[in-house]
Amino acid sequence: METELTKSTFSCKLGILSRPDGSAILSKDNTTVIAGIYGPIEVKLQKLLIDKASVECHYRPKSGLPGIEDRMHESIIRNTCEASLVASLHPRTAVLVAIQELQNSGQLISCAVNAVCLACLHAGIDMKFMFGAVTCFSNGVEMSLNPPAQTHIKAVFVFVFDSTEKRVIASHTKGIFTKEQFEEAVELCRSGSDQVFDYYKKVLTN
Amino acid sequence: MSVRKTLISNCEKKFLIKNLSEWTRLDGRAFDEFREIQISFGKDWGSCHVSLGKTSVLAQVSCEIQQPKTSRPSEGVLNLNIELNPLAAPHFDTGRQSDVGVQLNRLLEKCLKDSKALDLESLCIKMNEKVWSIRVDLNVLNYEGNILDCASIAALSALAHFKRPDVTSDGEEFVIHSIEQRDPIPLVLHHYPVCVTYAVFNGGEFILADPSLVEEEVSDAFLSVGLNAYKELCGLHLGGKAELSTDLILSTTTKAANRAVLVVREIKEAIEKDAEKRLKSKECFNMEHLFNDLAAMNLEKYIDPWAGDGKRKKKKSKEKKQEEVTTKMDVEEVVQVANIENLGEGTAALIPINEKDGSKIWEISDEDDDDVDDEIVVVEVPKPVVDLRDVATDSEEEAVIILNADKKTNKKKKYKTKK
């Protein structure tokens, strides 16, 4: 199931862990993440929702205790999953999403989101659509989907798209940029998301 | 209320015990057979992934400079932190540590920290002011039984693999050199202790090595032994409710010692291989090996043995015979004495070697150990063990024995019983 796209360096393997219902390891450009999904499972009383399943997300950094940035990753992934999963099918249950960082060389958020989507697909949990995250870099003048060699990066954008209509589900930005640059970045990432969804298909059909 | 862990039903329990009485295990292993270890290293120094069968643990060592403890002004600090990630099992909670987590942490500390495996004095930069603090983060990725063994191997391999940045000082200022400026420095390990766990059934009737998840749940008690490659005891823990006889503990510990030697050899080989790989290609690591290792994990040997046909069984029995032969051989070469090998320029290494004569390393005796090198202290454990049995009758208590196996300070032999 290990495939490599010609242009990007994705590699992935599904079902690497035996305990979770669905699991995936995804590596892109030396950033590696393991994601696992349990669900629907028993819910904690304080998180019980009577009309739908509650989505819990746990993100673990490689070393040290989870900090503020890790909590932010958690919230991005949780919001994305809440949008994508058909939670109303399983009221009074929980879906547990656990992510473990293995190696970080940048673009961690998009790698984690994509790994979670692959884990969801492997778990066979009901989804309204697939989601794919793309990172884009700006040096103030030009935009690129690949990290530029020089370190003159002015802004980093991460967008998560759905697979059906290519709408933006989540966005996360860092740095200084204009409104036009933001819009340009959305369009660039949208076109880049095709590659991600193609990769999903390749992984699943192999 | 939190997510409860899956319980083992009575029929599963009975089935397992019945199988044991027919000398078979659910996964087809022999009683003293361990699952396969796979060690792989990541791109960063001190990043290590270890899988023991399907159980897998990720270890990452990190370092920072801090003030030393006032009681030990010239020693660095070692912290071990095991995290039961909800990825491994849904009932593992983040946030505060569970009882299991605390126990695992303590057992690992006993094995690695209290046995003084890491040379803390070499981590001192300036007395009373600055020392290195080494932190080992262990993340359990998949829980299929026997986390302790897997975590101890992961922690030890990560420590052996880790390199800290070099620090120089001109008396006033300290400069931390980046990896590009100066070669990083590996940690100094005096010896390599690992934990070996056995599960005890029916009050000592069956003793299984490396229990799987179901076996762990059904077992009465478990015996964890911390040992290094010189077969020195670095910690012993008997938890649960079983009254083990002295002989049984001794024979199990001897078996564990043989296992420890093999494990340590495997760790050292893995580290050597990694060093070679790094020398050959300075390209970045893609954790490609991890993919391969994990792929190998799903191979047929881990398929439910009941799904197998007759052919498989035959093969199994053959394997088992071979296994018996190998274990017998292991028993024969029990006494292992370390040799001192000169590496030139004022350095030497203690190399454990196999010797064929002699049968046991731990015996209730006060014989002279003529055939043993002077460098090695043979640890005698009769007294503590007797005490241990007394304690073990009470299920609520746990016995802890720490034998200081330091080679130079022979007299420093102590043990304590903790409640």
Task: Give a topology summary.
The complex is a heterodimer of chains A (206) and B (419).
Chain A: E1 10-14, E2 22-28, E3 31-41, E4 54-60, H1 68-84, E5 94-103, H2 108-123, E6 131-138, E7 143-144, E8 155-162, E9 168-175, H3 179-205
Helix pairs in contact in A: 1-2
Chain B: H1 10-21, E1 37-41, E2 47-52, E3 55-66, E4 77-83, H2 99-113, E5 124-126, E6 130-142, H3 147-161, E7 163-164, E8 167-169, E9 174-176, E10 185-186, E11 194-201, E12 206-209, H4 213-218, E13 221-227, E14 233-240, H5 246-280, H6 288-297, H7 310-332, E15 336-344, E16 347-354, H8 382-392, E17 399-401
Parallel strand pairs in B: 4-6
Antiparallel strand pairs in B: 1-2, 2-3, 3-6, 5-6, 7-10, 8-9, 11-12, 11-13, 13-14, 14-17, 15-16
Helix pairs in contact in B: 2-3, 3-5
Mind explaining what this structure looks like?
The complex is a heterodimer of chains A (206) and B (419). Chain A has 206 residues and is of the alpha+beta class. Chain A has a single domain, classed as GHMP Kinase, N-terminal domain (Ribosomal Protein S5, domain 2), CATH 3.30.230.70. In chain A, 29% of the residues lie in helices and 32% in strands. Chain B is α+β, with helices and mostly antiparallel strands. Chain B has 2 domains: 261 residues, Ribosomal Protein S5, domain 2 (2-Layer Sandwich); 83 residues, no CATH class. Chain B contains 8 helices and 17 strands. In chain B, helix 2 crosses helix 3 and helix 3 packs parallel to helix 5. Chain B is globular. Chain B: Keywords: Cytoplasm, Exosome, Nucleus, RNA-binding, rRNA processing. Chain B: It is found in: Cytoplasm; Nucleus, Nucleolus. Chain B: One of its GO terms (biological process) is U4 snRNA 3'-end processing.
